[in-house]
Specification:
Blueprint: E1 5-6, H1 12-23, H2 28-37, H3 44-52, E2 57-58, H4 59-69, H5 73-77
Length: 78
């Protein structure tokens, strides 16, 4: 079974991830490292594309990012 992709409305999810990440002063490489330790397959390049709204985000990636940034789905999806 393939994992669910979440289609970004324009670039809002990516923008929200980037804004929260910068507010919390967390680098992209730090998020990627923590995600990989959680068993979520992602590269820094993929995170960059997600933040720019170029690449869809998988549900497991969104969940991991939510946990790492200590935020809510509401904040990420608004």
């Amino acid at each position: 079974m393939r994992e669910q992709k979440i289609k970004q409305d324009s670039i809002s999810i990516g923008n929200n991830i980037k804004a929260i990440r910068k507010q919390k002063k967390i680098k992209q490489t730090e998020i990627v490292s923590k995600m990989q330790l959680m068993g979520v397959d992602i590269t820094r390049e993929s995170l960059v594309k997600i933040e720019r709204g170029i690449q869809h985000i998988y549900a497991t990636q969104l969940k991991a990012i939510k946990e790492i940034l200590d935020t809510t789905y509401d904040e990420l999806l608004k």
